[in-house]
Amino acid sequence: MSIKIVPAVLVKTKEEYNQRVGVIRQLTDRFQLDVIDADFVDNPTLSLQEVGRPADLKIDLDMMVGDPRKYYDHIIRLHPYTVILHFECQVELGPVIEKIKKSGLRAGLAIDPETPVKKIKGLIEYLDYFQIMGHSSGFAGQKFQPEVLNKIPEVRKLRPDIELGLDSGVREQTLKKICSTDLDVVAVNTYLFETEDSLNRYSTILAECMQ
After folding, report:
1. Which phi and psi angles does 176 have, rounded to 5°?
2. SS3 of 164, please?
3. Spatial CB neighbours of 53, under 8 Å, sequence gap ≥ 6
4. Could you tell me which residues are beta bridge partners of residue 166?
5. Of 94, 64, 57, 50, which Cα lies nearest the Cα of 79?
6. Which one, 47, 58, 128, 149, has least CB within 10 Å?
């Protein structure tokens, strides 16, 4: 099994964003942009209005926002590869997922560690991507909660064919355990970008996940 390593970008300025995109171009063809507003958690990021979509990269929008419906026009403008909603947001997600799908985009859903898989049974059949959070959403660099890996077989039982990812908590000491599971995607932020040599770090992560 081959796991796709997707760089995750959580930044507060356009300059940071452009710098990260420049690095990502040397690594892979797909990345995840974390979009956070104060209605979801008190760590707001660069606004979608300021984001440009690199024509040569696939972008997944990880929408950690209180009401994703407010961002719909900006989402469509960027034409992302995947729109990842968060189960813990403040709106009914069924109609939002339907609208995303009707726009020709892939719909994804993420759940925090405290949310059981059984809560998303009514939504998973409409999804293209499902993301398990390794720690609570909104802040990078938190401690990984290994018990979330128990959700992987639960999701596979509900939808064996879904693209299944994990985001948050990837570090040197957790990487081997994460990569030994039945995941398709691992999103990496702090561990990848904390070093001045992200290219070498990315190669290290790939090598671990291919063993």
Report:
1. -60, -45
2. strand
3. 59, 77, 78, 79, 80
4. 132, 186
5. 57
6. 47
